[in-house]
Each structure stands twice: as structure tokens, then as C-alpha cells.
Amino acid sequence: MSISKKQKSTPLYIKVHESDNVAIVVNEGGLSKDTMFPCGLKLIDDVPQGHKVSLTSLSIGEPIIRYGEIIGYAREVLQKGSRIKESDVSLPVPPTLSELIQDSTKTEEMEPINGYTFLGYENNDGSVGTKNILGITTSVQCVVGVLDYAVERVKKELLPHYPNVDDVVALNHNYGCGVAIDADDAAIPIRTVQNLMKHPNFGGEVMVVGLGCEKLTTSQLLSSDDKRDVVLLQEEQGFHGMLETIMKMAEEKLKRLNKRERTLCSLSNLVVGLQCGGSDAFSGVTANPAVGYAADLLVRAGATVFFSEVTEVRDAVHLLTPRAANEDVQRKLVKEMEWYDRYLERGKADRSANPSPGNKKGGLTNVVEKALGSIVKSGRSPIVDVLAPGEKATKKGLHYAATPASDFVCGTLQLASGMNLHVFTTGRGTPYGLAMAPVIKVSTRNALKEQWHDLIDINAGEIATGNATIEDIGTELFHYMIDVASGKKKTWADYWKLHNDLCLFNPAPLT
Amino acid sequence: MSISKKQKSTPLYIKVHESDNVAIVVNEGGLSKDTMFPCGLKLIDDVPQGHKVSLTSLSIGEPIIRYGEIIGYAREVLQKGSRIKESDVSLPVPPTLSELIQDSTKTEEMEPINGYTFLGYENNDGSVGTKNILGITTSVQCVVGVLDYAVERVKKELLPHYPNVDDVVALNHNYGCGVAIDADDAAIPIRTVQNLMKHPNFGGEVMVVGLGCEKLTTSQLLSSDDKRDVVLLQEEQGFHGMLETIMKMAEEKLKRLNKRERTLCSLSNLVVGLQCGGSDAFSGVTANPAVGYAADLLVRAGATVFFSEVTEVRDAVHLLTPRAANEDVQRKLVKEMEWYDRYLERGKADRSANPSPGNKKGGLTNVVEKALGSIVKSGRSPIVDVLAPGEKATKKGLHYAATPASDFVCGTLQLASGMNLHVFTTGRGTPYGLAMAPVIKVSTRNALKEQWHDLIDINAGEIATGNATIEDIGTELFHYMIDVASGKKKTWADYWKLHNDLCLFNPAPLT
Ligand SMILES: [Ca+2]
Ligand SMILES: [Ca+2]
Ligand SMILES: [Ca+2]
Ligand SMILES: [Ca+2]
Ligand SMILES: [Ca+2]
């Protein structure tokens, strides 16, 4: 990546790969026509910040190259120094999935790093929590009104007596009834709830509130008829009975959770989910590479790392299959992509609908460019396994967890897969947070960090201006992750208690 | 309907239609084998409450008739006095939609009733509110954490100064980004949000909180670029800036809303949505017929009434098409059913998944029986119009508002269609409530009213025991609706503030 050191008002662009024929403008507010870069390139259009400038003259049909990859083809003649707009670029077809399975994969061996620890809550099943939360699962949305009321009372009247418990969280969702429970795709939301229920941050305490007549039965959720941890509202004597039973069960569990203490745990117990949202053209050159660097450190320390977001990976999947640890993992990766292709086709989704309007404003031309910037988060480690949506991870190392790109859906599914720490990069800015696990927000631009000083945890914007390296920010993030996982530092989202609702991925119909 | 007057411990059954060859057991706890009914019928099986007994002997393949309609065919020989279980009944094919369009429809003319009024909040657009609420719409789920925080502060710090305002409600939902916004079916969630935003209970005050980079732009929601009523978080100076801007805009609107007063309005301004949830075999003989009686009174008084729930109507649609006001309405009805058939087929939904396990425990054998009991809510009025999901009503009279049967999805869509009062019948029991409009809950059984005395507003169970008529309960409900709409009486859901989350119907894929 070629960038020059920050000099106030010096025109700057970032060219990521030596073969790139386009670069993005770094300067805040963009640069105007006739601006001359130190290298001699002169702009022949106004170019907003993060948007692309052509480094050479391109004739019609010539490939436009960024990250060393083709992001599209010129639709008309593009002069050297011109601004490249969405309408100038034709969208390439995505990689043909069947051609991606190779006999052998060439993965880079990562040097292990030892001795890193964090202070976590050890669970009986071997998992480790980064928080100590009473989680109350719902089997159906019908109970939300009652449960929200009860949780407010639990927080007010009971929680203060159990100071070692961080929070009480209702796992509200829109699933459970009025859904095609026997459809093939119903497996996804069902296993998601089953896995959320046993999240490492709940300390092995399971508590489910159901109605009693819903399609998703509590027995199915618990895979048993044991009603010990279940409150069914239809079995209670009115609203008062419901409240009393929920409060009583909650207190029993709070008592046990309150006895837990943080102990020194190997960093290999961290399960870190990576995601981006509100991306811009800087995501792929500042925040995401820094996260990728930190991801490699985590993997080298033995931890588990997820990257996700199918629609933002699909167009760059040919760069991932060679990184699969073996052919089996390759096949799993291709299978998830195929499933998603069919799912989108069935619903007649328009491929150009991603990037979002905000992404485009931020300089991202199309989903190929977005994907190339998105997968940088995964670093360089081998992909040891691929998880279907909501599936629990059973290995250490880098995983591809197939999820939609939707921030709150991806976050919910990564939690179900066992994530106990979330890293979220953002260019345009989002106040995203999760109640179940800490969310570290990394900004791609200095301006966002300045504007949202009380929401952004780590700023990777200095990479664009040349005041910090990818390694600097990656290392800073790595150490910050350890402090957050240990409860020593609080993310802004947790400080303000800004938490997005869970959102299950249910590809099956409503009934 | 033949029922005998209640005599303690007298074995009772309900036969709905003279041609029925099955009846349901009324007695709490059910009746045991060898029980003799006053008419001489003797049970040859134990039969739980609400479950069916055969009134004659049925040979294999013979139709089983309830509500005067075929609910299925005997799979084996059924002796007179035997219990009819789900496995005894084969599911009939649903009515062929193309055969339902008739040249002429024969609708019953209803005698108008005049002079009924309620105390409502008149709006400039001609609609009338039953509450005076500050509604804050979201364009995307990303803002939920910030908005929930802000709404709590608005309620605590501002609302007490504006005593004429009933509530501040955040319209949180899971739509707005990470969705196939250009897919055909995206029209449904988009118009739902657009119509929710202008709900009659919001007094014409529109306030939208968005992020700034989401796919569902606030300009699209408002159909204008006017930003006066919009807060975009990405334009604010951090979390503090967001809070300040939201609170300031909220206060301006609270000031205006606080000046509003209830005035005497014609009952023709009521827009009542009907729904059932947690149904049992009594739903179709107690609560739903009483609601149907009240629905006819409403229509006769000039009001608008919706009934909904496609999957619970589909198998009885041949009883509805003849009630359509004209051929155009017939076609619209058939079109919505066809759309839903395809939607379920595309998702490989199993038709036997409705009724829910709770419905079945309550005695409902299959979706045909459930549908026959469900449509009784619609009374006998002509169907003047059919609404696609989330579409706004423009006429008075009885409407079929096509929605999924899922309680919270149906409720959300009926709100979007303009519902300002909701009537909800339940047999198994649900604590269902909505923040945007009052929800009146009607129980089908005495036992539920006794058990949930602090949640059920109206009990229709006395109809089964013969201590009240359908007309008695229907009239009671009609007057209670007027009192609730006038703010003179509070439903239990509003008393406890038990409110289900909104849930948009998005048949298009996530991306
Ligand atoms: Ca992303
Ligand atoms: Ca995302
Ligand atoms: Ca229903
Ligand atoms: Ca329903
Ligand atoms: Ca909520």
C-alpha cells in the first residue's frame, strides 16, 4: 500500500496494490478539479473523500483494478485523473462456485504465540465467558410484554443484591409461532435460539419463558421434557402469577451466578466475531486490515475467530477457497455460497442492492469492491472450518461463519456460534451494540472518531493519513480486546448500554 | 347451535350446525368413557375439554362435518360416541381458487344503526385517534439502542410536563438495511412502515430517526426530501448530540400533541382489527361468534372492520367469496390467497404446521376446522374491500386485510392499515398487547378468565355453558369497545403496559 506521511492539506490518495489502476482520495472534504498530487497526477474532476480516481487512461471494456483484483470494467473511456462513478463501471459476474474446489489448498502456516491470557468466567462445558449475565430466553414473541416488565423489576429489585452479576438480558425475538416450523429452513432459527440459550456469557444457567401453545416448544428448545428451567405463562395464575414465578426463578439463578469470579484463562478461550457495517472506501484500507492483523494475532494465540457476511464475501470467494485448510472446508464454503445464491434468486433479490446508499456515498462502487475490502478483516490465517448460520463452532482458529451481512442478523448468528467478543468496523458510523457480548467499534476515518468520540472505541483512520501503520492499530486493538474481555475496560456501547435487538435469520415463510 | 342450560356436572357438548356429525365437549377437565349425555349419547372414549365426539358412526372415507362444513374424512371406522383424534381425520384439499369467482355475489344487506359516538382525537386528515401518542419511527434497526435510551429519557424528563399525551412509542423493527430493498416483495415492509408512521393515534406528528446510510432512506419513507421531521444519527455530534437532537424534536411535538383534546366523534371513525391467537375448539363457538356479532354492529354503525390471517381463512375462503360486495373484491381476495399459496410453496411450508401444538391440545384437529372457527369473527356483513398486507383502508365497512396469522405480524399490519382498536380472542391464553392501539382480549372459556383475571377483558366462555348468548357477549363487547376507544376504560394490556414488539412482514430475502 503506498501512502505518504500526513502533511496538512497535501493531496493524498491510497493505492492498495501495485497493479491497481485506481486509487481513493484520502483528504477530508474531497479534492477539487485541477488538484495536483505530489506524484504529478492531476484531477480532471472533483473527487469526494473515499471516492476513486483513475491513475491511467482506460478504454471501454478495460478492467478496473483495486486490491489487485478486477472490481469491474470501464463502461466508457475514462481519462487519467477522472473520478470513477458507479455508472462508469459494469459489474462483473461472481466467481463460478463449482470451479473453486481444488485438489490441494495452499495455506500459510502461522507462527503460534504463547502466554496471552485474559480474565474470564470459566464454564463447566469448557467455554469461557467475558461477562456474567442472567440470560432469559423466549420461545415465542408473545411473551415479550410480560418478560420486559419482569426483567425491569428483576433489574430494579433483585440485581443490586447480586453485584457480581453484570446484567439481566431478555432474549427477545420474533420467532416461535406463526412460522413454517417444519420447513427445511426452519432449522436455522431453531438452532440459533438453542445455541443463544447456552451462550458462554450465561454461566451455564438456562432460563426459558414460553407461552405454552407456541409451535417452537420449550421441550424442543431444551431437547428434553425437563421443565425445571421453564416458565410457561399459560400455566400461571394471571399476570401476578407470571411475575412471581419469573422473579423467583431469576433470583435462584442470580444467587448462583453471583458466586462466580473471573480467573486467569488462556486467550485461546476467546471467540471473536468480526463484522463491518456502514462501510466506506476506507474500510478496506484502514480498519479492516488492522482487524485482520489482530485476527491473525488471535489465531496465533489459539483463539477462535469468525468472519461472515455472505453477500460481502461472495464476489471475493475465489480468494478464500485457496485459504481453506482442506478440501472438506472448501466444499463447505462453496455449499454455503450456493445455498445463499439460491435463497437470493428465489426471492428475486437484485445484486446491485448491496452496497447500500451510504456505502456508495462513502465511495464503494459495487459489491465486488465492498467484498474485497470486507474479507481483509480475516487476515491471512487458514480457514479451519465453515459454520452454517447459527451453528456452534467446535474448533479453534479462523472460521467462516456464513451469515447475512445485515449487522444485527450477523451479530445474532455469531453470538449463537459462541462469540464472546465482537469487533465491528464502521466508516459511515453506527451506534451498534449487543447486550450479550461486548462490541468494540473501530472507525475507518479520523473524522468519524472526532465526530463520534463517545461511541467509537478504536480509530484506524490514522492509517490513511500515514500517522499509524496497520500493525500499530492492529496491536492496539489486540490489547484492547484483552482488556475488554477481562472486564478491565468498557466499550462505549456497554458504557451507554446501547444494545441492538436480536434478530433471527428465518428464511422459511410466516404462516 | 344446540346447547343446554348449565347444570353443575351435567355432561355437555356443543353441536354448531344441524348437519354436524361431531360435537365438542364443554365440561372442564373433559369427560370420561361411559359418560352418558342427556340426549342418550354415550362416550366410548375419554374426551378432553374442547375435543370432538362422533355423534354417529362413520365409515372410512365418510365426511366429518362441523360448522355445517366438511373438516375432513374418516381415516378409519369411527364408532358413535368415540373421540375424534387428529390421526383419524384426513385433511381435505383447500378450495380451488380459480373456481371461486362468480358472476354475481349475494350479500346480506345490513340495517344501519345511527347515533353511536365515542370520544376520539380528530386528525387533520379526517382520521380519528383512540390515543394521543408521540410515535417515533425508525428507518433501520441500527438506531434502536440510541432510540430506546432517548425514549426512556423523554418519558422520564419530558412526558410528565405534557399530561394530555398518553405515551411515547418507538416504532422499532428489524427492517431497513441488509434487505433486498429492490425485490418485488419489499413493497410490503416499506409501505407498512410508511403507513405505521402516519397512524391515527400519532395526531399527525411524524418523527423519524434514521442512521443515514441505510437502504430504506428517510426520503423514501417520507416520500420527500424534507428533513424537518428527521434525525439522522450520522449527522449528529456523537451520542450526546444524538440525544439532544432527539429530545428537542420530541419536545416540540409533545407541546403540540398536548394541546389536543377528545371530542365527540361518530362511531364510523372506529377502525377495528379482529384477530385470534392461541385458539381452541371453543374459539369458533363462543368468542369468535360474539366478536362477529359486535363486528356486524360496528359495520351497521358505519365503522371499518378488518379480519385477517390468510392461513386461517384459506380453507374456508369458499364461504367468503360469496360475501364479497362485487366481483372486483372477489378477485382481490382470490389474488391475495394465490400470492400466499405461492409464498408458502416457495418456502416449502407444511400445511399441517397450522394449527399449533396448543391449538391441537385445545381440540382443533386441522387447519380447516381452525379456519371455520376463525372466519366467524367476521360476522355476516358484505366484504367491501380486500387489503394487501400493510395497505391502508380507504373505505368503511368490513374488509379482509390479508396478513399472516402470526399474532404480532397480523397486529403490526392491521395497525398499518389504520386500525385504532384491536379485538383479540384467545382460548389457550396470550398476554398480547400493542403500544400503538388498545387491545381488548376476549376469552373463549370461563376457566381462562378465572385463571387470567388480570389479563382478560371480556369473557365469552359463558356462551358455552349456556349462561349467556352470543348476542349478550357481542353487545357487551360493543359497548366496551366504545368505552375503551373513548379512553374511559383501560384494557388490561394497557393497564400493565404489556406490549408486543412490532414485527414487519418481509417476504423478500435478507442480504
Ligand atoms: Ca459488512
Ligand atoms: Ca454487517
Ligand atoms: Ca388466529
Ligand atoms: Ca393470530
Ligand atoms: Ca425492545
Question: Keyphrases for this structure?
Answer:
homodimer; 511 residues; alpha/beta; Archaeosine Trna-guanine Transglycosylase, Chain: A, domain 4; Rossmann fold; seven-stranded parallel β-sheet; four-stranded antiparallel β-sheet; 27% helix; 17% strand; binds calcium ion; GD_AH_C (chains A, B); galactarate dehydratase activity (chains A, B)
Question: What do these coordinates show?
Answer:
Two copies of one chain form a homodimer. With 511 residues, chain A is of the alpha/beta class. Chain A has three domains: 1-93, Archaeosine Trna-guanine Transglycosylase, Chain: A, domain 4 (Roll); 133-258, 3-Layer(aba) Sandwich (Rossmann fold), CATH 3.40.50; 264-496. Helix content of chain A is 27%, strand content 17%. Chain A has 13 helices and 21 strands. Chain A has helices at 144-158, 187-197, 218-222, 238-258, 287-300, 327-346, 357-361, 367-374, 407-416, 446-451, 462-465, 470-485, 492-496; strands at 13-14, 22-25, 52-54, 63-66, 69-74, 83-84, 89-90, 117-122, 128-129, 133-138, 167-171, 208-210, 230-232, 263-266, 271-276, 304-307, 383-387, 397-401, 421-426, 439-443, 458-459. In chain A, the strands form five sheets. Chain A has a seven-stranded parallel β-sheet with strand order 17-18-16-15-19-20-21, sandwiched between helices. In chain A, strand 20, helix 10 and strand 21 form a beta-alpha-beta unit. The longest helix of chain A is centred in the middle third of the chain and has 21 residues, at 238-258. Chain A is globular. Chain A starts with 12 loop residues before the first strand and ends in a 15-residue tail after the last helix. At the A-B interface, helix 1, helix 4, helix 6, helix 7 and helix 9 of A face helix 1, helix 4, helix 6, helix 7 and helix 9 of B. The complex binds calcium ion (5 copies). Residues 275-277, 309, 405, 407, 410 of chain A line the site of one calcium ion (CA).
